[in-house]
Amino acid sequence: MFKQRRNASSVACTYRQKKIAMTLKRTSHSCFNGVSRPKSGRINLPVAPNCNIQCNYCNRKFDCLNENRPEVISKVLSPRQALYHLEKAMTFSQNITVVGIAGPGDPFANPDETMETLRLVRDKYPEMPLCVSTNGLDLLPYIDELARLQVSHVTLTINAIDPQIGREIYSWVRYNKKMYQDIDAAKLLIKKQLESLTRLKEAGVTAKVNVTVIPGINDFHVITVASKVAELGADILQCLPFYHTKETVFENLYETSAEMVQEIQDASSRFIPQMKHHTRCRADAAMMLKLAESAASPEKTLEYRPYIAVSGIEGVMMNQHLGEAERFLIYSMDDTGKCILVSAREAPQTGGGEQRWKELAETLKDCGTLLVSGAGNSPTKVLNTHGIEVIVIEGVIKKVVSGIFSGQDLKELLHRSQIHSGSSNCNGMGKNCG
């Protein structure tokens, strides 16, 4: 099973732990309180596509397994799309009591989108509990603002505190635009995680620690993690079973048995309260809502944007990079649900840097979505800021536009999915992006 490594300085069950357990019992947060779970729900706003580490159990072709949530929604929303989606969800489900950001990458590998979403939600819903889930690498600079925004709960995934074990779990870490590998990656990540946990507690934020229990890798080490995070003030620990994911370093490892998890929970409970009620969930209380509809109408919280703009050379296929576009086709949907061409609009002159994309945003101000076959970081960010979601995709224009208007799944048509748009270098020739 696993070897128990006890910390002699730890005590069995302190007054502080009992007090924490009572506090968590009273909270309405469905992830922290099994009693309240049937009566309350958490909705995840997927605004963070990028990740800053590579775990050996995670395949980025799929959704991040940071919390072993294999069914988590793959659509990515801009902050204002996320607010619109939340507003719709609130009308659909009366039991949403918590708003969270957990990916599908890491929230603080996408700090602008994450923090803007939290600000928008806090302004709209002053009493709504907010939470985030992160690996902790880039969390530290944002903790003070999280506290000011009254983000009540933060989940940190800490799979090891020994770099020799961490090096087996993490392939690489990217920090301050520099790539770290092997033991250097593990040392850096663990250092930042423990510093963040300490600062979270100083700021008065409830901290949950997740540990993915990986047989033969860190199963014997979890109790040491539990002791350390309890020492730093963590409020509760969740032991998550490891599940197979294809095309990963760990794809051939044994999955974690329920018996192993139970034994580790029992051993760790001497140091820190355990979360035992959680299952493999999507963290999405409104899962029947189609996120595609929210993605097609990102700014309806502010103004009506009924059109979709498309860049295509001959007007039949989406086959043109944003920087090369000389005109944009504007589409709408009529009362019968048919896709119709409304107009064609000239693109701003090339050159001019960011100002060019601001002019384009003004040209397309009644469009919620722009479809192109390639786009650079700079124009994508400017257009997103002005409420226009850039989707990088290829296919027959009318088929894709009709699909977006009707909320269909266009997964097979994605050239480079929306999860990565705005986070990569230019596709195609990439000229005229400035």
Q: What do these coordinates show?
A:
The chain has 434 residues and is of the alpha/beta class. The protein folds into 2 domains: 15-268, Aldolase class I (TIM Barrel), CATH 3.20.20; 303-413, 2-Layer Sandwich (Nucleotidyltransferase, domain 5), CATH 3.30.420. Helix content is 30%, strand content 19%. The protein has 12 helices and 16 strands. It has helices spanning 15-26, 79-92, 111-124, 143-148, 163-169, 182-202, 222-231, 258-268, 291-296, 354-363, 377-385, 397-406; strands at 41-44, 53-55, 96-101, 130-134, 151-157, 170-175, 178-181, 206-213, 236-241, 307-310, 317-318, 327-333, 339-346, 367-372, 389-392, 395-396. It has a 6-stranded parallel sheet with strand order 1-3-4-5-8-9. A hairpin with a 2-residue loop joins strand 6 and strand 7 (178-181). Helix 2 crosses helix 3 (111-124), helix 5 packs across helix 6 (182-202) and helix 10 crosses helix 11 (377-385). The chain is elongated. The termini are far apart. Residues 1-26, 34-39, 62-74, 279-289, 297-302 and 415-432 have low confidence and may be disordered.
